[in-house]
Amino acid sequence: MLRRSLARLCEATIEVGGALDRYTGKCFCGTVKYEVEGDPDWVAVEHSTFYRKTHGAFNLPVAAYKPKHFSLHEGEQYLHRKSFESIYKHTCKKCGTHVYDDWLPHHKKVVFPSQLDAFGGHHRLAAPWSRFHPQFHLHYDSALLPVYDGLPKFATIPQEWRGGTGELLAEDYPANSHNTYKTAYSDTTWQNA
Questions:
Q1: Are strands 189-191 and 60-65 parallel, antiparallel or unpaired?
Q2: Distance, CA of 187 to chain centre
Q3: % of the chain exceeding 90 in pLDDT
Q4: Quick one: which of 25, 27, 128, 174 has the fewest CB in 10 Å?
Q5: pLDDT exceeds 90 at position 163
Q6: DSSP letter at 163?
Q7: Alpha-carbon span 128 to 118, nearest angstrom
Q8: 70 closest CA partner among 41, 40, 109, 117
Q9: Interval 51-75 mean pLDDT
Q10: Using 50, 70 and 90 to split pLDDT, how confident is the model at 164?
Q11: pTM over 0.70
């Protein structure tokens, strides 16, 4: 059932009220601006070393769109494009913001929900939170902190995606796979990878 659900997530874009909703996003300085159309094909929590190092966070929500549902509105000349295996990272040359990625084997534009204008400023309460709620975790084998949210946790990526193993890991995988330390914030254990 999970496999069928993931296959549908990879193909579906939901229409709301007969028209696709649009969300704008931008880099920190506002030079690079883009728009995504409709609900994302899927939203995941990414734990890979790549995203951890390029964003400086333990994990990162990512939202994937078909290229036809992504448009760059301003600042193309200010984008720096860097290839990391099959991912092309796009950053703003002015402020350094990691703006979006091209996941080539999966034919997706990957944006970061926290950069969408709907999630900032005075309109936070009207933000479409439910449309960007994660559906699963990716690269959980690289996670440093366990996440107890009941969502599927793929060691790498789903098997249906080129290069994926489809292996699922337990929520406490990080706590059982490395040296364990107590955090200063709770009794939860986490790992120093």
A1: unpaired
A2: 28
A3: 56
A4: 128
A5: no
A6: T
A7: 7
A8: 109
A9: 94
A10: confident
A11: yes
pLDDT above 50: residue 27: yes
Phi then psi for residue 173, to 5 deg, are -50, -50
Q: Which residue has the tokens 């996941």?
A: 103
How many CB atoms sit inside 10 A of residue 5's CB? 12
Provide the token pair at 148. 């107890």
Cα–Cα distances in angstroms (integers) from residue 161 to residues 4, 6, 19, 87, 165, in the given order: 13, 10, 29, 14, 9
Pairing of strands 79-84, 70-74: unpaired
Report strand pairing: 108-111 vs 98-103: antiparallel
Q: Please, what sign has the CA dihedral across residues 146, 97, 84, 5? A: positive
Sign of CA dihedral 143, 149, 155, 160: negative
Q: Tell me if 103 sits within 8 A of 86, measured CB to CB.
A: yes
Q: Where are the extended beta strands (E) located within 14-139?
A: 22-26, 33-37, 42-46, 60-65, 70-74, 79-84, 87-92, 98-103, 108-111, 136-138
